[in-house]
Amino acid sequence: MVTRRSFFKNAGVAAVAGAVVSRVGAASLPEAVTMEKAATAPPLHPPTGRPYNPVVTLNGWTLPWRMKDGVKQFHLVAEPVVREIAPGMKARLWGYNGQSPGPTIEVVEGDRVRIFVTNKLPEHTSVHWHGQRLPNGMDGVTGITQQGIGPGKTFMYEFVARRPGTFMYHPHADEMTQMAMGMMGMWITHPKDPHFMPVDRDFCLLLASYDIDPGSYTPKVNTMTDFNLWTFNSRAFPGIDPMVMRQHDKVRIRVGNLTMTNHPIHIHGHEFTVTGTDGGWVPPTARWPEVTTDVAVGQMRAIEFIADEPGDWAFHCHKSHHTMNAMGHDVPTMIGVDQKEVLGKINKLIPDYMAMGEKGMADMGDMEMPLPENTLPMMTGSGPFGAVGMGGMFTTMKVRKGIARGDYQDPGWYRHPPGTVAREVSGGAPQPVSAPDKAAMAAKPGEAVIEVTKPGGKHHQH
Asked: What pTM was computed for the model?
């Protein structure tokens, strides 16, 4: 990543006016900062401008800015990128500043913001500031509010961040292709009062889906429903970092959805309230407790809770196919099918062939089978008790005592206190008891159980 020192070295250059930046103007643009690492960057505390409590973008980062004459200046670069979905698989996507999704943009309510957008794609693009109130000509809809940003061109957007909340940015130019290729990012407008609805930890993530054939690298942009990779910030478990929380911290998680379907986001071990939507903050009287909230297409939800239960708690989409990787949609169900005979015949032709699914699919979490180049197992990841059997939109919330206020490093697996882990019961499962025997067991000592048969064959017990 370009260092902050080099980013701010041009802080004295003149501002550029107009919608299209000339060659002379391009020389005075804010430096385009690039991120190549896929790890979660620490929060970017504001070096200039109004104070705010920064967010942490899971497996992402916040875009630095330059202050010029009281205006926050950012530089987005739309370009082809390579994103590691998880160890063992990379995708050729389109994104911003070296990554997909692009960097999170953080501003404060009332800030005047100037965003330079340079296009390094092979076709024209634009940027729509999803959910923002702004002048119509800054809305980023190609052909309606502006010309497309041609390859090699730089456009400038400028407006005042008028209302606080959680928003997104994405193209409105060939968007079926460009969004399917990963062009999206988060935008946070913090409240003018940094003491309004404060939290100790504030996470944000963007939901994205891709259809990438095993052995290939580029998403199929015409797919409408049969996606095989479901991601948080274009990362699939176990390539997703955990959300680290100090016990008793007040936590906010902001989730934006730019996939083609809804996602019921579910947390374990805690209940939360929905405190924010695309439309703004939910009044306290309108909030209610949940453990799952549905985030529809194009929507955002902010949830808040007190992380008061220590442990490693699951956080995931509750559509079960969305917690798997590289799924094939035409795989037959083989539960209960005896494959021994046909397996022997196939092994003579394909020695590495493995029969699976006869007793369910759980064994796939432990299998080490040959995979095509650049793909992921359907179930992957391991924990202290073995295979997790999850992928896709799945990660953990790691709640611990004694974590420092700004510490987001993975603390490792939770050490359960003695006697607090589910365990096998010795002696095996109890034998089933028939209905009359249950009644006899329930009778008081010295009481008889008399069965009476009435007309029609119905039994009554006394």
From this structure: 0.82
Closest CA to 154 of 203, 107, 121: 121
Which backbone phi and psi does 37 adopt, to 5 degrees? Answer: -75, 150
Structure tokens at 261: 């379907």
pLDDT level of residue 439 (50, 70, 90 thresholds): low
Peptide bond just before 151 cis, omega within 30 deg: no
CA dihedral 348, 359, 89, 101 (to 10 degrees): 150
pLDDT digits (tens, 9 = 90+) for 382-433: 899 998 988 999 999 999 999 999 999 999 999 999 999 999 998 776 777 6
Residue 356: phi, psi to the nearest 5? -150, 160
In whole angstroms, what is the distance from residue 279 CA to residue 277 CA? 5
Q: Is a pLDDT exceeding 80 seen at residue 105?
A: yes
> CB within 8 A of 71, min separation 6: which ones?
15, 112, 113, 114, 158
**Tens digits of residue pLDDT in 196-251:** 999 999 999 999 999 999 889 999 999 998 899 999 999 999 999 999 999 999 99
3-state SS, one letter per residue, for the chain: CCCHHHHHHHCCCCCCCCCECCHHHHCCCCCCCCCCCCCCCCCCCCCCCCCCCCCEECCCCECCCEEECCEEEEEEEEEEEEEEEECCEEEEEEEECCECCCCEEEEECCCEEEEEEEECCCCCECCEEECCCCCHHHCCCECCCECCECCCCEEEEEEECCCCEEEEEECCCCHHHHHHCCCCEEEEEECCCCCCCCCCEEEEEEEEEECCCCCCCCCCCCCCCCCCEEEECCECECCCCCEEEECCEEEEEEEEECCCCCEEEEECCCCEEEEEECCEECCHHHCCEECEEEECCCCEEEEEEEECCCEEEEEEECCHHHHCECCCCCCCCCCCCCCHHHHHHHHHHCCCCCCCEECECHHHHCCCCCCCCCCCCCCEEEECCEEEEECECEEEEEEECCCCCCCCCCCCCCCCCCCCCCCCCCCCCCCCCCHHHHHHHHCCCCCCCCEEECCCCCEEEC
Upstream peptide bond of 194 is cis (omega within 30 degrees of 0): no
Q: Which of 206, 208, 202 is nearest to 185 (CA)?
A: 206
Phi, psi of 203 (to 5 degrees): -105, 150
Beta bridge mates, 230: 209
Are 207 and 301 in contact by the 8 Å Cβ rule? The answer is no
